[in-house]
Amino acid sequence: MSRNAVHAWLLVLPAAALLALFTHWPVLGTLWDSFHATSKAGRPAPWVGLENYRVMVADEVFWRSLVNNLWYALGTIPVSIALAIVMALWVNSAMRGRTWLRMAFFTPTILPMIAVANIWLFFFTPQYGLLEQFTSIFGMASRNWLGSPDTALGCMIVVAVWKEAGFFMIFYLAALQSIPPSLAEAAALEGASRAYYFRRVVFPLLMPTTLFVLVNAVINSFRLVDHIVVMTKGGPNNATSLLLFHIYQVGFSFWDTGYAAALTMVLLAILATTAIVQFVFLDRRVHYQ
Amino acid sequence: MRRLETAGAWLLGILWILPLLYAFWTAFHPPEFSTRFVLAAPLTLDNFRRAWEAAPFARYFLNSFMLVTMVLAVQLVLCTLAAYAFARFDFPGKDVAFLLVLVQLMIMPDVLIVENYRTMSRLGILDSIPAIGLPYMASAFAIFLLRQTFKTIPRELDEAARVEGAGPLTVLWRVYVPLARPSYLAFGLVSVSFHWNNFLWPLIVTNSVTSRPVTVGLQVFSSGDQGIDWSVITAATVMTSAPLLVAFLLFQRQFVQSFMRAGIR
Could you tell me if B232 and B54 are in contact, meaning their C-beta atoms sit under 8 angstroms apart? Predict the structure, then answer.
């Protein structure tokens, strides 16, 4: 190896070692552990083959969490992306008070999810909560929003949309600012309506941003469960249990490491699929330039 | 039509800020006014005093501060070195190594909690601040961002410095780092807010007052013996968010631009 190559590897080495220890090794370790029972009292864990996966297929809470997670993603992602686009268009226009609007939309992004969850928990509280006070004005019956399986997941979706839309807005704002104003002028000269201009010019130009945001939104919907821990603990009756929350419970409430590893494999498979989709549709340009 | 749109925008803006205003109202008013919105309600800092006395928040803040500083410092050093190698060196295995780095963009330490907990346990550093930070210290995101930035710096500057007899590290420090300042600021803000706000992993690895960051401290506090004293819990919530919130309100432009820069790739 040339001296240059040795230098390069020395530069990469510290970061590579930490990455290997805390990303690559755990991925392999998860796979390995998923074929083992949980070790008890310091003895090495016995090989159990596919037993953990068999348990998983029969685990109702797992299926519930997976389905919940899909609904959660389906509820969160399109709404927050649509809102993000609308917010970005507004903030980017010559509207009065747009600096204030940008601040209002973006603020939830920098708040800790756990703080946000506490605030919303109060918001949804039966009787005292702001929501209850508001609905009672209209004479609607009192209900326990977080305590009922029909509405609890919906509440989680509302919180996630509120937290994320402003974050995604930023990326759309950047994309909008890179669209040359001459396009809008040309469209106006041709007599195109604003709606038409948005649909035929702006929206297609925003496509790469939408893909980028989409991938981020998918990852976030499987990665972030802070609000679940604070607001519902997966309840009522597992109505708000998401995949990572189930892993957390199995791994750190029941201390069943082997089974938690099998569950983690499902999560890793979902993330890997997302990565492949992104790689095929989006990132070729970036990796091989 | 335009006016209607402005009204809609403002309505959404108010709706978006409402939960926060609500939290501030509750935090700064006596408990009996926590959900009664009367203008005559007296302002008070008593909720903050009670929260501060009820839990070791000073220690939690110190822990969070140490965590955020430690993580950022190590990230900056390690990722600068790696990004420099990926941007300006040719070496065998470079493409594979870079792909392996990018894996972390998808599979973040957040989802590897079970295995990383075992690793920390084997290393014997459970319940310590380094244990919270370690999985995040080699940040694929930072390596990626800095590599992109370094690639835009003209090679001539690099070569000129080499002709003067400067070694690779001197060139890195004298040429690349100063020119990449905006990227460092962007990454710094994103990293600090991420680690100040991080919750699940710190919740898992920490177990005592001396290592808990504020987010975990807040959770322990609000789910503990507070019952449902919302005024105090909300005061504590506002308190934990305050450092970032104040920084954001002061440096709004930098924050927004940093998050923007961090997202464009």
Answer: yes
CATH number given to B57-263: 1.10.3720.10
- Quote the pTM value: 0.90
> Under an 8 A CB cutoff, do A223 and B138 touch?
no
Q: Which long-range contacts (CB under 8 A, 24 or more apart) does A259-262 make?
A: A259/A38, A259/A52, A259/A55, A259/A56, A260/B114, A261/A29, A261/A30, A261/A31, A261/A32, A261/A33, A261/A34, A261/A36, A261/A52, A261/B114, A261/B115, A262/A34, A262/A52, A262/A53, A262/A55, A262/A56
Q: B115 and A33 in contact by Cβ < 8 A? A: yes
Domain ranges of chain A: 75-240
The complex's ipTM works out to: 0.89
The CB-side HSE value for A275 (13 A sphere, CA atoms) comes to: 16
Note the CATH number of domain A75-240.
1.10.3720.10
Read off φ and ψ for residue A36, nearest 5 degrees: -120, 155
**CA dist., res. A193 & res. A182, Å (int):** 15
What are the helix (H) ranges across chain B?
Answer: 2-28, 46-54, 57-88, 94-106, 113-123, 129-133, 140-151, 155-163, 168-171, 177-179, 181-197, 200-205, 214-223, 230-250, 252-263
* pLDDT tens digits along A64-117: 999 999 999 999 999 999 999 999 999 988 888 888 899 999 999 888 999 889
**A56's tokens:** 């998983």
Q: Which of B81, B92, B197 sits opposite A11 (nearest CB)?
A: B81
Phi and psi angles of residue A240, each rounded to the nearest 5 degrees, phi first: -120, 15
Residues of B in contact with A260 (CB under 8 A): 114
* Cα B176 from Cα B170, distance rounded (Å): 10
